[in-house]
Specification:
The complex is a heterodimer. Chain A is α/β, with parallel strands linked by helices. Chain A is built from 29 helices and 30 strands. Chain A has a seven-stranded mixed beta sheet, with helices on both faces. Chain A has a five-stranded parallel beta sheet with strand order 8-13-16-1-17. The model of chain A has no long low-confidence stretch (mean pLDDT 89). Chain B folds into two domains: 3-156, Rossmann fold (3-Layer(aba) Sandwich); 166-274, 3-Layer(aba) Sandwich (Rossmann fold), CATH 3.40.50.620. In chain B, α5 packs parallel to α6 (140-148). Classes of the chains: A alpha/beta, B alpha/beta. β5 (176-183) of chain A pairs antiparallel with β3 of chain B.
Chain lengths: 804, 275
């Protein structure tokens, strides 16, 4: 028996006013927790609370659910109750400057330490020169120099005295020394020398040779004296520097006596200052080029080695850090080593190490967008490696690529203790789980967000959430009616009268646009009509293609009948998805039958315009027809089915019932009412099954009919299991209420065929035969006839002639 | 007429191109420029060196390596000429920089004799304290000049300055008066450019000395002064560590010559000995 049209209250489930006991949303408090996301909330709570490696969280769900907002709220609440993380610094390692040392400090201690070290250098630059210019130092230095001169003099004096005893003088030449024999205090003239007896000449020559040798020995001893002198001067400098630096550092030591690492560093600083005290004796007065360059070096990198590079400063933290890094490149996660140009060369040192998100989030929580991490070169691998190693290592990217590198720094890795919360859609999660063997090791907790939440009993909760969203965005409060309209739109967006969408982004957009409409209308509270105009505005803005299709149907370019009857021709319905916007449109489906080998040809599939699910639907038809009408005979039908005027791909099985009706019409010879459109898939038993986009499909046909004028016998056949999804437009509901349009729920194809042909479908009797005149009897008879023809064709010609 | 009376017209600098002697040149050029005097430079080729080079089996021991190589007269002459050329360049460049007239002369002989001989015609002899030789103290030439020269001798110290104030040892003797006159002229400002180190046993004598100096310099008030006691120990104590030039009389009966040499040894500052 043909079903009755659906009553209007089932076509659109409105939000009853008694569910919303308030005037405006200003009266409503924020919701206690996330509406309908209890599973995800529990997972997030668990993932952030449980300790152990790999207990990081992947929050999954489609974009626009408000995952960010939710995660931020949960984390901030949790972090506020936790102690602040540590401060971290990088210090110069005086033993190996290319490996800066990491230093952990209690929160808030890094900046003061940095300032103290800066002040120390300033003080040293004043106090060290002062010590070295003091009378005390100068006189001690003079004493040392005097000692050197005396020792040198003594060495030379001895040589000279011995020489004098031999009547030989040591005289200075421009290049060194020479020895010469003397008589009466004067060097003997060469001529005089040659006049001396040979014996005397030989004696003198021997004496000269002896003195020369002694002189050489004495001169060779001089460098040793100078070395000893330099050592003494160095020792003096060390003593003076220690005097200058000691009391300044003692002050610092007292302030940091609870931190052995700081004390060790201060010892190293002291040793280095003492060793390199000349760096502080900058030639401020030097005016020559060399002096200027020396000055540049002194004020530049040389004294920077005493600085403190603060990587993390938690002085103002009110709890554990929560960091969201919206550009998670490798360098933004790991930090970077910067360079600067110095005398035309790029140089770096530990003061140029910059922190990354991992440093800032260390000891707390780091929130990242999974896709953004994955599209950044090196970032994903680095994140996993850091979590696995439990430390943050900063490497120049070229080192990670294995390319040849310039001399750079290898900062000491910093121990890492962080909860990483990745946000991404489900597909990404399942792809990672399938393709990356390490992924599940590092992200053991999945917080899966619902796309939809149950509608029943949640109207007020939804209203409170809308109130919170509006307040958060500083929008006007919503009236009760406006909330009801948003709730209805929430159900429409969910595509289900019994569900509400959880896509906060879409709701947020709607609230903003409705607020804009209210503002234009000069209202302080957003009214129902503002929400309505916002919804209509959204549809209007996106409707160019939809309206073009309606126009071409109205002009007869696209052939769709909405009146009369046709054989083997049914109005099917399809949904087009363009970006964020979906709409329905009718398509003419035709079937033609003839004698054949028992196959239903899907022309869409033959030309590769039909998808696999569509093909599956068509093949099911053959199964249904064969089983229903010719269970004990060969199925000798050859049928072809086509979506007329379809020039692109067809996918889905929602048209399979329409295709079946077209085939049945063609087989039975009964024409089909063109004022009706059909949607629903069918199984081999003839049951009509639910499809998607039911609202859009009904509205698509309604719009075509209304364009030509509603006649009162137009309507759409939908699967009865889709009734719960109905959230139709108000104008459609209105037309149905006035009897100008109808929506029929169909459970079995027999119900549909009755509505379409106006002829009873006919139930098979105990003998398996259908009642005379029924649609099914006509189909069975036609198939039987085809079968007979086939048998006749299968006989030899003589036998065929012998047939009566 | 003493040099102080007739002013400074000729300043002699004894040069051997060592660092100390170049500093002496600089000081001499500065004084010449200030007083409008002519700068005369003298380089002496040491006759002892030439003789030593002419001897058979003569060796030169190089500094600082201590290696020995044969020595002959020709190469020694050439070396001395090279040093003289360097000295000449230094003199010309200093004269150009100070805008003064200069002359350069090379003499051959015993260094001290030649320098002292040339100094007789000059108003001031300037030389470096330490020559290129190894060992301590002032060079033999500086010692000889400080001891024997009748011309005032300015012995420059290492990095010593000749800027006022000048410390003047003053005991009221005529020699000390001459030293005072020359110091006043060199400083260019008798009132502020001098600090008298008053050598007197008693304080009232020191006051008397200060007054005498005021009168001699025709100043309205006595110049700055310090009483250093009656012995020379006070002078040594006052001058030690000071960077200002010390002016003293070389003929003072109370100042033994050995002390002058001691001061040259001891002090870093420049010392001007007036006779």
């Amino acid at each position: 028996m043909a079903p009755k049209p659906l009553p209007p209250d089932l076509l659109r489930r409105v939000c009853p006013p008694e569910d919303l006991p308030f005037q405006t949303t200003a009266e409503l408090a924020d919701p206690d927790g996330p509406l309908g996301q209890e599973r995800a909330a529990e997972a997030l709570e668990f993932g952030t609370a449980v300790r152990g490696p790999g207990y990081n969280v992947f929050v999954l769900g489609p974009p626009g659910l408000g995952k960010h907002r939710f995660v931020k709220r949960v984390l901030e609440k949790r972090a506020a109750a936790e102690p602040p993380a540590h401060d971290w610094c990088y210090l110069n390692d005086f033993a190996a400057a290319h490996r800066p040392k990491a230093l952990r400090l209690p929160p808030g201690r890094a900046r003061p330490f940095q300032r103290e070290m800066e002040r120390l250098v300033e003080d040293l630059r004043a106090s060290i020169p002062a010590v070295f210019e003091s009378e005390d130092y100068r006189s001690r230095l003079q004493v040392l120099e005097k000692q050197l001169e005396e020792r040198r003099g003594a060495a030379m004096k001895e040589v000279k005295e011995r020489a004098a005893a031999r009547d030989v003088a040591v005289v200075q030449t421009p290049m060194g020394f020479a020895v010469a024999p003397i008589r009466a205090g004067e060097v003997i003239d060469p001529e005089q020398f040659h006049q001396l007896p040979e014996e005397e000449q030989r004696r003198i020559q021997e004496a000269m040779t002896a003195v020369q040798q002694e002189l050489q020995v004495a001169l060779r001893g001089l460098p040793q004296l100078e070395r000893e002198h330099r050592e003494k001067v160095k020792e003096l400098n060390r003593e003076a520097a220690l005097y200058a630096v000691g009391h300044l550092l003692d002050d610092l030591r007292k302030r940091h006596d609870d931190l052995p690492e700081v004390l060790a560093h201060l010892d190293a600083v002291q040793a280095d200052v003492v060793e390199n005290v000349h760096d502080f004796l900058g030639s401020a007065e030097a005016e020559d080029a060399a002096g200027q360059i020396r000055k540049l070096f002194t004020e530049g990198p040389a004294l920077r080695r005493y600085q403190v590079n603060v990587m993390v400063d938690q002085a103002d933290a009110r709890g554990a850090p929560v960091v969201y890094e919206d550009r998670p490149s490798y360098a933004d996660l790991a930090g970077r080593i910067e360079h600067h140009a110095h005398f035309g060369t790029l140089v770096t040192d530990f003061t140029m190490i910059r922190p990354g998100a991992l440093h800032r989030a260390n000891g707390g929580y780091l929130v990242l967008d999974a896709l953004r991490v994955l599209v950044q070169p090196l970032a994903w691998d680095y994140l996993k490696a850091s979590l696995a190693a439990g430390s943050i290592r900063i490497d120049p990217p070229e080192r990670l690529y294995g390319l040849s590198t310039t001399a750079s720094l290898e900062p000491e890795p910093i121990p890492l203790s962080v909860k990483v919360i990745l946000l991404g859609d489900r597909r990404l999660y399942y792809l990672l789980a399938a393709l990356d063997p390490e992924f599940l090791e590092h992200f053991k907790v999945e917080a899966d967000f619902e796309d939809e939440i149950p509608r029943h009993g949640n109207h007020l909760g939804y209203a409170r959430m809308l109130a919170m969203l509006a307040r958060g965005e500083k929008l006007r409060p919503l009236s009760c009616g406006a909330v009801a309209r948003v709730v209805e739109e929430g159900a429409r967006l969910a595509g289900d009268a019994e569900k509400l969408t959880a896509r906060m982004q879409a709701l947020m957009d709607l609230l903003r646009e409705a607020d804009h409409c209210a503002g234009q209308a000069g209202r302080d509270v957003v009214a129902r009509e503002d929400v309505q105009s916002a919804v209509e505005g959204q549809v209007r803005r996106q409707s160019r293609v939809r309206e073009r299709i309606l126009e071409e149907i109205a002009r007869g370019t696209l052939l769709v009948d909405t009146a009369g009857e046709e054989l083997g021709q049914v109005n099917g319905l399809s949904v087009l998805q363009l970006g964020d916007f979906a709409f329905g449109r009718p398509s003419r489906i035709t079937a033609r039958v003839r004698l054949g080998k028992g196959e239903v040809v899907d022309i869409e599939r033959e030309v590769e315009l039909g998808g696999p699910i569509h093909s599956k639907g068509v093949l099911i038809l053959a199964g249904y027809l064969g089983q229903r009408y010719t269970p004990d005979r060969p199925f000798t039908l050859s049928a072809s089915l086509v979506f007329e005027q379809s020039y692109s791909g067809v996918e889905g099985d929602s048209a399979s019932s329409a295709e079946l009706y077209a085939l049945v019409s063609a087989l039975s010879g009964l024409p089909v009412r063109q004022s009706l459109a059909v949607t629903g898939s069918v199984n081999q038993l003839g049951q009509v099954q639910a499809i998607g986009g039911v609202n859009e499909k009904i509205e698509g046909f309604f719009d075509v009919c209304r364009g030509r004028g509603l006649t009162g016998d137009q309507g759409v056949l939908i699967p009865s299991s889709n009734v719960k999804h109905l959230m139709l437009r108000r104008d459609v509901v209105q037309a149905c209420a006035e009897g100008k349009f109808h929506v029929w729920p169909v459970e079995h194809v027999d119900q549909g065929i009755e509505l379409l042909t106006g002829v009873p479908a006919g139930m098979a009797g105990p003998d398996g035969r259908f009642p005379e005149g029924s649609v099914n009897a006509r189909v069975a008879a036609r198939l039987e006839a085809l079968s007979e023809h086939a048998r006749a064709f299968a006989m030899p010609p003589e036998a065929r002639k012998a047939q009566p | 007429m003493t040099p102080a009376d007739r002013g400074l017209r000729r300043i002699l600098v004894a040069l051997d191109a060592s660092r100390a002697s170049l500093e002496a040149l600089e000081a001499g050029a500065a004084i010449a420029s200030r007083s409008g005097a002519e700068l005369e430079a003298l380089f002496v080729e040491d006759i002892d060196l030439l003789r030593a080079a002419g001897l058979p089996c003569g060796l030169q021991i190089s500094m600082p390596s201590g290696t020995a190589r044969p020595l002959d007269r020709r190469s020694m002459e050439s070396e001395l000429r090279a040093v003289a050329a360097r000295a000449r360049e230094a003199v010309e460049s200093a004269a150009r920089a100070s805008g003064i007239a200069s002359s350069f002369r090379v003499a051959r002989g015993r260094v001290a004799v030649e320098v002292l001989g040339a100094a007789r015609n000059a108003d001031l002899l300037v030389l470096g304290r330490v020559s290129r030789r190894i060992g301590s103290g002032p060079g033999a030439t500086a010692r000889a000049a400080a001891r024997e020269s009748s011309t005032p001798v300015l012995v420059m110290g290492r990095e010593a300055e000749i800027e006022p104030p000048l410390l003047v040892a003053y005991d009221g003797s005529p020699e000390a008066d001459r030293a005072l006159d020359l110091a006043a002229r060199l400083s260019g400002d008798a009132a502020g450019g001098l600090v008298l180190l008053l050598v007197a046993g008693r304080e009232e004598d020191a006051r008397g000395l200060a007054e005498r100096a005021r009168q001699r310099l025709a100043l309205p008030t006595p110049p700055r002064s310090r009483w250093i006691g009656g012995g020379w120990e006070g002078l040594v104590a006052a001058a030690r560590g000071a960077r200002s030039p010390l002016v003293l009389s070389g003929r003072s009966p109370a100042l033994p010559e050995i002390l002058i040499e001691g001061l040259l040894d001891e002090l870093e500052a420049a010392v001007l000995v007036v006779r």
